[in-house]
Design a protein that fits this description.
It is a single chain. This protein is an alpha+beta fold. The longest helix has 19 residues, at 760-778. Helices cover 25% and strands 28% of the residues. The strands form twelve sheets. The protein has a seven-stranded mixed beta sheet with strand order 30-33-34-38-37-36-35. A five-stranded antiparallel beta sheet has the order 6-5-4-7-12. Tetramer of two alpha and two beta subunits. It comes from Methylotenera versatilis (strain 301). It is found in: Cytoplasm.
Length: 784
């Protein structure tokens, strides 16, 4: 929120200087992000009138001017501006003036003496560019300081407001808060209703009173749309960051800035029939004031006439019914729309308007009609015309529920002693209506304070007005107990350490994702949609962490990174019949070479088994893998991860279709695990280490090529054959010497006994038992 300090001071009488005022606002929660002067520092520049212009005798582009600066005799000034002419009133820098980068002295210009300089806005530091002298109004007083005439001793303040302080999105709201902070008196002028000069009205029908509980409008006929906007209004509008457009539009913008009430003026001649406030129809479109045509959705609130939508309620008016220089009759609108019906709509359409910014945060519903009356007064003063009767449709306005503030609770939270009289004084400065009984204040929040709804809100108000810098910093005193940390419970930091140890980097992404990710990567056509997304591409809640990881990968690849090992531990969200469920997942992505590029080893691309080893590192040998299919993963390189027969996650290579869509030049591997399922682990137990030597036997078995090796190892583990401590695969062979549709597995078998030295007979018996197991369960034979 940007505004003129002088405009603010015209509404609230405070003795604080600019720096002190800025500090007071910041310490009260209205952070002043920037304060800059309207114009650069300069002196001895006055309003001047050119009396006579003659051509310079020795220069075609220069003129010799006789200039009245309010002294006894006019000055002679050589000027090269193209718009210099007799009768022009413009700024003149006197001899001795100090302008930004220029010192004005007596000089001879091509042999002609010059006693000053006529100035453009650029030379005064008011604007970056200028094409000629700054032309002033004919009523400007010759000899008056230009700083005084143009009100240049002013500062532009920019507030960085939090979303809850919508009441300070107007100069009146800020003045109200300054009065509360400093105890100064406000100078608000009473708004007097404009009596109807004509009986003409426009019928208004509000079909959606739940989201538009108050709508006011009136016809104003005989207006002069070509009237000039007064300089004082243009100055205040432009110093608030808006530009002057036309008198009618400027008035609505001025009321928005002063009172915080967005308004709109329709050209009444372009409206057909009654005004209707309704939701948009299916397949309805609207051409907006910015020449953008938008396709409306059925939850978009519109202001319509018999021809269809005429404006997007609370956001922007329509082009077909807009005012122009030919307008002679307007329908002036002032309404209150609930924040929920406006929130997110402008962002979805790629718009950002001053109206939507205010409506989606909350506008004062008690000021709707007053704003209409004030805008009417200004239009009649500037553009003339005759006002019709006000048409007002009122439904169920928001009820401001009383909020109780207990003195004991206030003192407990703030930690400082406060008297009831002091609290009453601060509440009075805020303009709150309240009663006090037995040290309990019952406060009815005003209609402009949407943020006051619970006791803590009132405590915050008291704290900021009392002054945060007046609340001493006291170290807390508390008894701290160490929370239990079961050894069998795997902490998230252990998972992080495990993944970081093999080269992964942790990322933290939004829980909001693009709807297309859910649909394409997860086949989720009904995701949980946000009512007010922060961006159009973050509109639904995620059910997997993969979308964010792929987005992070793409971001890094676009910045010339050629490998990425990423992981995230975060929540995912699911919709169920009886509500919503939140669970936590750990997910990883591997792309590129297994190790960073170096001279000592060859670069090897990461593969399925490398990532599988990383998953094993997370969960140990207690899980198993089953071939499966997933919409996001490659049909031939996808596995479900199971624990005790229950699916707890997925592992696989990104599907070629999505690899192409994300423009990934190399294979990408993904995994995801349910965190709760892997959080319990077996407590390590002592096991005696034998002093005796183990025996190793290698054998090769032939079995059907469709048998998964993991199933073989699971069967061996389950059988728990005595003496076998480890079985490992060290070779896989298919080809000459092995029948078609068969494969040969070379296994190393390690046997050990902690009590005695094993003999060849012991080893032979164990190997025989192992081969018998493989033959019975997998029809395996010993390879010759």
């Amino acid at each position: 929120m940007q505004f003129s300090e002088n405009w603010l001071r015209s509404l609230v009488n405070t003795d604080l200087d600019s720096q002190a005022l800025s500090h007071a606002l910041t310490m009260a929660g209205l952070e002043v992000e920037e304060m800059q002067p309207v114009a650069a520092v300069f002196s001895k520049v006055v309003v001047a009138k050119i009396l006579l212009v003659e051509k310079h005798p020795d220069a075609d582009r220069l003129q010799v001017c006789k200039v009245d600066v309010g002294l006894a005799e006019p000055l002679q000034i050589v000027c090269g501006a193209s718009n210099a002419r007799a009768g022009l009133i413009a700024p003149c820098a006197m001899v001795g003036a100090e302008l930004p980068g220029i010192s004005i002295k007596e000089a001879k210009v091509r042999g002609v003496e010059s006693f000053g300089m006529m100035c453009s806005s650029k030379e005064l530091g008011i604007s970056a560019e200028a094409t000629g002298l700054l032309e002033l109004d004919s009523n400007a007083v010759v000899g008056q300081s230009i700083r005084e005439h143009l009100d240049l001793d002013d500062n532009l303040l920019t507030l960085k407001l939090t979303p809850n302080r919508s009441d300070c999105l107007s100069i009146t709201g800020i003045a109200r808060d300054v009065a509360a902070i400093t105890g100064a008196e406000t100078r608000f002028e009473a708004i007097i209703a404009v009596p109807a000069a004509v009986k003409s009205t426009k019928n208004v029908v509000v079909t959606e009173q739940a989201v538009c509980p108050r709508y006011c409008g009136r016809l104003i006929s005989g207006v002069n749309a070509k009237a000039n906007t007064p300089d004082w209004m243009i100055k205040r509008i432009e110093r608030s960051g808006l530009r002057s457009i036309s008198a009618l539009v400027d008035v609505t913008n001025y009321v928005l800035l002063e009172l915080g009430q967005p308004m709109h003026a329709f050209d009444a001649a372009k409206l057909n029939g009654d005004i209707t406030v309704r939701f948009a129809s299916a397949n309805e479109s609207l051409s907006l004031l910015n020449d953008q045509t938008v396709e409306l959705k059925t939850d978009d609130l519109v202001i319509a006439d018999a021809n269809g939508a005429a404006a997007l309620a609370g956001i922007m008016g329509g082009k077909p019914t807009s005012v122009d220089d030919a307008t002679t009759e307007i329908f002036l609108e002032s309404a209150f729309f609930t924040p929920s019906v406006i929130a997110g709509k402008a962002r979805r359409l790629g718009l950002s308007t001053d109206s939507s910014y205010r409506f989606e945060r909350g506008v004062d519903f008690g000021n709707t009609k007053n704003a209409l009356e004030y805008a009417t007064q200004l239009i009649l003063q500037i553009c003339g015309g005759q006002a019709g009767e006000v048409t007002e449709v009122v439904g169920s306005l928001p009820v401001r529920q009383p909020v109780k503030l207990r003195m004991a609770r206030l003192v407990s939270v703030l930690g400082i002693p406060l008297e009831g009289a002091k609290v009453a004084q601060l509440l009075t400065q805020l303009g709150f209506v309240f009663t006090e009984v037995n040290s309990v204040f019952t406060v009815v929040p005003p209609s402009y304070r949407f943020d006051i709804s619970i006791e803590e809100d009132l405590i915050e108000e008291i704290a900021r007005l009392h002054g945060y810098d007046h609340i001493p910093a006291t170290a807390p005193v508390a008894n701290l107990l160490m929370l239990p940390a079961p050894e069998a419970r795997l902490h998230q930091n252990k998972l992080r350490d495990s993944l970081v140890a093999v080269g992964y980097q942790e990322v933290v992404n939004y829980s909001f994702v693009d709807e297309s990710w859910e649909r394409d990567l997860l086949g989720n056509d009904t995701p949980i949609k946000l009512q007010n997304p922060i961006a159009s591409n973050l509109s639904v809640m995620r059910t997997s962490l993969w979308g964010g990881l792929l987005d992070t990968l793409t971001y890094n690849l676009n910045r010339k990174h050629d490998r990425a090992f990423l992981f995230e531990i975060g929540a995912v969200y699911f919709k169920q019949a009886n509500g919503f469920v939140e669970t936590t997942r750990v997910s990883g992505l591997a792309y590129g070479s297994t190790k960073p590029e170096q001279w000592a080893t060859d670069s090897t691309e990461v593969d399925f088994f490398e990532v599988k080893a990383h998953v094993d590192r997370l969960v140990g040998a207690k899980v198993s893998y089953e071939k499966a299919e997933h919409i996001a993963l490659h049909p031939g390189q996808t596995a479900q991860i199971l624990l005790d027969g229950k699916v707890i996650g997925w592992l696989g290579k990104l599907h070629p279709k999505w690899q192409q869509q994300y423009s990934l030049m190399k294979a990408t591997y993904l995994f995801e695990l349910d965190l709760e399922a892997i959080s319990s682990h077996q407590i390590p137990a002592y096991q005696e280490v034998s002093k005796l030597l183990p025996i190793r036997r290698d054998l090769a078995v032939v079995l059907d090529e469709n048998i998964v090796v993991g199933e073989v190892f699971n069967a061996i583990k389950k059988a728990d054959i005595p003496l076998i401590t480890e079985v490992a695969l060290f070779d896989l062979y298919q080809g000459q010497g092995v029948a078609e549709n068969k494969k040969s597995l070379a296994l190393s078998v390690l046997m050990h006994d902690t009590q005695k030295t094993l003999t060849d007979s012991d080893a032979d018996t164990t190997i025989t038992n192992l081969l018998q197991l493989l033959q019975n369960q997998f029809a395996a034979t010993l390879r010759n």
